[in-house]
Write the structure tokens for this entry.
Amino acid sequence: MGRPASIWSGRRGLALLSIGALLLAALLQGRFDARAAPRDEVDPMLYLPSGKYLKVASLGFDEILADLIYLWSIQYYGNYEIEDRYRYLEHIYGQVVSELDPHYLDPYLVGSLIMNLEAGDPELALRLLDKGIGNNPDRWILAFEAGFLCYNDLGDYARAAAYFEQALRSPDVHPLVRRLYAEMHNRAGDKRTSLREWAEIYDTSSDEYVRQIAWKHVHDLKIDIDLADLNDAIALYRERFGACPRHLEALRREGLVDAIPLDPDDNEYRYDHRTGRATHQGGLVVGG
Amino acid sequence: MFTRIGAIALNTFREAIRNRVLYLLLIFAVCTITFAQVLSLLTVGSEEKIVKDFGLATIDVFSVLTAVLLGITLVSREIEKRTVLTLLAKPIHRAEFILGKFGGLVLTLLVNTVFMSIWLFAVLAVKQMFDPQLATAIVLLFLQFLLITAIAIFFSCVSGPILACVLTLALYVVGHLLWSLELLEARLASEGARLLCRVVYCLLPNFSNFDIKGQVVHGQAIDPAVIGFAFLYLAVYGSAVLFGACAVFQRKELQ
């Protein structure tokens, strides 16, 4: 005589009991979380050790740990409810992720973006990018980003030019970097270097559109430089003879210039001996 | 000799693929590699790196677990069930038994790794991120699994399964932390202590010789000497461990 069937004897009954108990546990957890007083908010950053120590604990899985912390950091910095979230920016990106995986470019790029645009600390962003450049000297994008930050946010064109020059030393660099490098010299006041760079872009680029842009810059820069040279020579002439020269040719005769330059369209520059100013008869193409 | 080793290896392989643990680990591995696709959507920047990192780490972790969990019971279970006595009553040398067991587990791991690699490459191909360079990292990882298998079999010969599992995993952890011994050596003042440090460093298995995951994922050039050294290291160190296992098993009391 067999035993009477009960819920304990059937496989299905036990499975249903198991699922039921699991659902009850989930329900209880939900209720508990809803009723419990909010826990003291302890900053999770306090428990995140430096990448050097995490590397020890990662047992060869440094890269995946860097991925996970980077993914987590994106969610963390996307949460605008955490008011002091920018306090640990340098720690997360500069000391944890970049130590775990020094060749992972995204954290340098995104970290510097958050540091500059969200936290308003461009120098911190540049420090992170400098570390990235040091770890990845053959990747142009980091030096480019640093240069663009100096140009766009700091208005420090000489520093931007230095970063763009660094980017130009990397292989497979984007052609835009060379144009920005040339333009930074112009904005920093070094028009001769800028002219040399734009002229090289004009000579070497195979892109017709780029050549047109380069020609416009060469055109304006040549006029600027010629006029500056002529006006400097006129000032010297006035210092020496007490009056402005009647013609520009007098500058060459006195050895103040090697030759009287023509503008890029092979026209002579205008000269008014009453004001002592050399000017260009046409307008500038790009503007200056 | 090779026929006998081959027969034991084939039987070990057949036995291993009937083990549910293997399938459980494979299912977890497949789920993790697939999950990496979802995780990669959370990133800002290159999704490719996340999928590749997760894929290679999954192959690494789950194959090491397979090698350890199957390797530690290979010999001890045969002794426990006394099937080893039946086997060794035949004209089979004890060393052939150990080498056959090792061969069977290597075959299992090969099938395992190939399956996970195909899955990873399929996931990458779907996302148009297929990168054949990953195969180099997987080959070196496979060499690491072979060494761990040899170590697991060695410990399986000298102790019970639980202790063998603990010792193998401990050696795996230590083998990934050897660079800290180099740091310690540089800081030690005593010449004798430095020498001791160096000896310990050289004697322990160095698993970092097989780890080129990072370089491969970042598309960096891999020095052929690194790959060559990994093969040589496995051949020498693996032989030492296997010969050690054979020697221990040779003297083991099986009654």
Summary: The CA atoms of residues 270 and 279 of chain A lie 5 Å apart. Chain A has a mean pLDDT of 88. Chain A has twelve helices and two strands. The two ends of chain A are 106 Å apart (CA to CA).
